[in-house]
Amino acid sequence: MASADSKAPFSLDSYYVSEELGFILPEPLEELPPYYQEWMDIALRIPELVQSHELRSHVNKMPLLSSEFLQKHRELRLAHVALSMMAMAYVWQEGEKDTVEMLPRSLAVPFWEVSQRLGFPPIFTHADGVLANWKKKDPKGPFDMDNLELLVSIPGGESVRGFFLVTLLVELAAAPALRNIPTVINGVRSGDTEAVARALEGISQSMQDMTDALKLMQVYVEPAVFYGKMRIYLSGWRDNPCMPNGLIYEGVQTEPMEYSGGSAAQSSLLHCFDELLGVKHEGNSASFLIRMRNYMVPAHKRLIQDISLQPSLRSFVEQQACERLNQAFHQCVTKLTALRSYHINVVSRFITVPAARARQLRNQSQSSSEMVSEAPTALEERGTGGSSIITFLKTVRDETKDALLPETS
Ligand code: HEM
């Protein structure tokens, strides 16, 4: 691999990273070849078909289509978006009380094949809901909330749009940081202290922009809708008490399989920053995060691994004893810690607080029309990826802080 070769300069060329958009898929397709019309007819109507309890019957009647007419990467990505969102809707149509044991053949077989070809798991991921699920209303217009639209959606209306598109804007805000990573790596290799310091300054600015973009979550997403309505459609069939055995993919394998649900823990961004800055995760938090790498675009996972193989930036900063470099490194770790701290606030607003309200309503055992009371109870203490949330997130945040150099911490 050219970029992993220590003699050639490190570049992002072979990792499916866009200069302008980072890990976001540039210009996702909006349509599949006409042969796949039946998939798209259902996928584009997911919210209304779930609402009328008809999605499962539509999927059951779907013909078994061959995936062989999908050729280009972007065709496969759109097929994965459509099939994965259909699968989530199929499993969770009736809530946590009436799930299914088996995904029918007409969905399971092509979903499996497309997943194999992309190197994705056969479940909905961050790469589906966020990275490949957008279009600009005006193609020449700006990349902002007013001009962006989702391709495929799940129940939850405007909050679904807000949730996926704000996350997309966080990914966009990180693009300059990704562009700076090769400069850091090449600067460490050649001993160019100034270049490394400048690139780290760019990265910490980009981290601040990510936090600012994340702040839009509270503008565009309603916590009760997120918690009570849409979150179940992101959840998977691993470590999930309401699907203890996982899911059978009919026509693929007779034994059930277990996969975690969609989560931005599957975004490659923070994994790259952790490896670059020398942030070390341990125990359960490390194993969860490492497992999430299997839910990424394989080229992005490879980038994370290749960054981890480079000479240590942290040791370089220590050895150089350069004030500007020390400061720039310190800023990066501090901004990454702050991003994770702000994310914990977001999680308490969107999960902990509504979960407490739902428990309170249940304890009063009154029937309530409040949206939060519709939320699944099995997910109360868990993230959609299956983790026990706040403890996990605080551990990961504190491990970030530990990467500060002793004299600056
Ligand atoms: C309403 C908005 C959000 C909620 C409720 C939320 C919730 C969660 C939860 C529960 C976890 C624990 C892991 C799991 O089980 O899935 C998690 C992890 C994570 N989330 Fe979010 N999240 C939100 C938005 C975002 C956004 C926009 C990003 C940025 C791309 C993000 C990045 C992460 C990362 C990187 C992790 C892994 C832990 C870490 O590395 O610090 N989240 N999130």
UniProtKB/TrEMBL annotation:
It comes from Stegastes partitus. Heme b binds at H343. It holds the Pfam family IDO. Belongs to the indoleamine 2,3-dioxygenase family. GO terms for cellular component: cytoplasm. Gene3D superfamilies: 1.20.58.480. InterPro entries: Indolamine_dOase, Trp/Indoleamine_2_3_dOase-like. One of its GO terms (molecular function) is L-tryptophan 2,3-dioxygenase activity. The lineage of its organism: Eukaryota, Metazoa, Chordata, Craniata, Vertebrata. Residues 362-371 have a biased composition (Polar residues). Keywords: Dioxygenase, Heme, Immunity, Iron, Metal-binding, Oxidoreductase, Tryptophan catabolism. This is Indoleamine 2,3-dioxygenase 1.
